[in-house]
TrEMBL record:
Keyword Transport: no
One matching Pfam family: Wzz
Superkingdom of this protein's organism: Bacteria
Record organism: Streptomyces ferrugineus
Upper classification of the organism: Bacteria, Bacillati, Actinomycetota, Actinomycetes, Kitasatosporales
Protein's name in the database: Polysaccharide biosynthesis protein
GO cellular component: plasma membrane
InterPro entries according to UniProt: Bact_polysacc_biosynth/exp (IPR050445), LPS_length_determ_N (IPR003856)
Coiled coil: 150-177
UniProt-annotated location(s): Cell membrane
Domain (Polysaccharide chain length determinant N-terminal): residue spans on this chain: 15-94
Annotated segments matching region Disordered: 475-515
Transmembrane segments: 30-49, 249-271
Membrane topology designation: Multi-pass membrane protein
Length: 515
């Protein structure tokens, strides 16, 4: 069995997605609460902190270097220039406002809609102030842009005219040399004159070219200035509180849901609390023999739960009647369910004779639910004084802090009542090891609050403990137990019941298990 279980543990994936999904789904209260909190918080922010009055305007910006394939560099430059203290200061001057440009820059923003269309959003204390601010800011930007165009055109024209004047001075020198003429004739003098005439023609052409380019530089400026204008007058932006609250609530819901799912997933991985049947059975070393929902409020589910509880009571009563040794119920994370099962089982066994329930649960769980006519309930300290004729049914706990040595006084066989997702894998393994050390076989596991979509197999097939639903005792009696006919005829002494060995479920050893 050890070899088989080791191979199964080695083949187990590092992260079981099925178990992770189930664990996250079981923590739906957490992520639903976080999502609801995000929804309410976002809606509250929209109601308690409404956005300030805002105005918007659009400006058509003409650039001297406009190209059809421009990736938006020019308009991004305009957006950056809009956020400068020069433009903000000019807008404040037109508004005659004492506010600092640095503070005013926090109240507006620019967005490049296209390569030549700039949208300006400005906020203020009122809608009228926001509209006035938007108009002043747009006028300041247009004036600054026009001024930069004019300055660039003037600088270019001045450079061209300066070049033309230098060419004219050089042309005057050439004309002067030509007018003086060479002092003597000859081939060399003729070549010299031809060179001067060619230079004069080149200078004349270049002077004309510079003059034309200077005129063109100044001619294109009025077109750029005329095209740069406010195309959408400043207007107040309508604010709808219900729409804003709904939008914020939707965003908060999505963000809260994502955050809640992430927290639930991380918590499930870190906590390592088994929720599937196969995981619980493997860590406890015992098969799941029954399942019960934890609580239910729906009528038809109540009937289904009541029927499942009755079937469980009949099965456990049959097992206890066929057992020669006392049986106990040990709970982990479900004291209430264990007390209800114990009382139902005690009532079923009371029809055969006196039954005493030994209460080892923390708190008055059994006493609070006991009804008139139910079996007697005594504490663990009175268990030794009970007469042997009465049938005993022990109820205890294997939660952290349990007194392990007292469990054998509750019963030499046990049924574990475990709530899915309550104990960690290390603690389930610790429970199995402690029970094995006390030589208390586990008849089976009753799973409380299982996942309704869990389709894994909770039966162990690779060990003797898979047949501990009363079968091992029958084998023990046949091999020499007190009720065997062979033992009575052989004249042997006191009846003796031999218990089959039990192994704890193999799992990852750790220091936590030892504790």
């Amino acid at each position: 069995m050890t070899h088989t279980t080791s191979e199964s543990s080695a083949a187990a994936p590092l992260l079981d997605l099925h178990a992770l999904v189930v664990a996250v789904r079981r923590r739906r209260r957490l992520w639903c609460s976080v999502a609801l909190l995000g929804l309410l918080a976002s809606a509250a922010v929209a109601v308690l902190m409404p956005p300030p009055p805002t105005a918007v305007t659009k400006v058509l910006v003409a650039h001297q270097d406009d190209q059809p394939n421009d990736p938006g560099t020019l308009i991004r430059t305009d957006v950056a220039l809009l956020h400068t203290t020069r433009i903000a200061g000019r807008a404040l001057q037109s508004l005659k406002s004492p506010e600092k440009p640095e503070d005013f820059m926090k109240d507006y923003g620019g967005t490049g809609l296209t390569n030549n269309l700039l949208q300006i959003d400005v906020s203020g204390d009122s809608e009228a102030e926001a509209v006035a601010r938007a108009k002043a800011l747009a006028d300041a930007f247009v004036a600054d842009h026009v001024k930069r165009i004019q300055e660039a055109a003037d600088a270019e024209a001045k450079t061209l005219l300066d070049q033309r004047e230098r060419m004219r001075d050089e042309l005057a020198e050439v004309n002067e040399e030509i007018g003086e003429g060479p002092p003597e004739s000859g081939p060399e003098a003729s070549a010299n004159m031809e060179s001067l005439f060619a230079r004069r023609a080149e200078l004349t052409s270049r002077i004309s070219d510079f003059g034309q380019r200077a005129a063109e530089a100044r001619t294109g400026t009025p077109q750029l200035i005329a095209r740069t204008q406010i195309v959408d007058a400043p207007r107040a932006v309508e604010h709808s509180l219900p729409r804003t609250a709904a939008t914020n609530a939707g965003i908060g819901l999505v963000l809260g849901l994502v955050l809640g799912l992430a927290v639930a997933a991380v918590g499930a991985v870190v906590a390592d609390r088994p929720v599937l049947r196969r995981e619980i059975a493997a860590n406890l070393g015992a098969s799941v023999i029954a399942e019960l929902p934890r609580r239910t409020a729906v009528l038809w589910r109540r009937r289904r739960t009541r029927a499942a509880r009755e079937r469980l009571t009949v099965m456990l009563a049959r097992t206890v009647r066929g057992s020669a040794e006392p049986v106990s119920l040990l709970e982990l994370g479900c004291a209430r369910s264990a007390s209800v099962i114990a009382l139902d089982l005690g009532r079923a066994l009371a029809a055969d004779g006196p039954v005493v329930i030994i209460d080892g649960l923390p708190g008055p769980q059994l006493a609070r639910r006991r009804k008139p006519g139910d079996p007697a309930v005594v504490g663990g300290e009175r268990a030794a004084a009970l007469p042997h004729q009465e049938r005993r049914l022990g109820v205890g706990s294997v939660a952290p802090g349990a007194a392990w040595t007292d469990l054998q006084y509750l019963g030499t066989q046990t049924v574990l009542v475990v709530r899915a997702g309550h104990g960690s894998a290390a603690w389930l393994h610790t429970v199995a090891r402690q029970l094995a050390d006390l030589n208390i076989p586990v008849i089976g596991v009753v799973l409380i609050d299982p996942d309704p979509r869990d389709r894994t197999d909770g039966t162990l097939w690779d060990g003797l403990h898979t047949a501990l639903r009363g079968h091992n005792e029958r084998l023990a009696r046949q091999n020499g137990g007190g009720t065997s006919h062979a033992v009575q005829t052989a004249g042997q002494g006191r009846p003796r019941t031999e218990r089959q060995p039990m192994w704890a479920g193999r799992g990852p050893d750790s220091d936590q298990e030892a504790r």
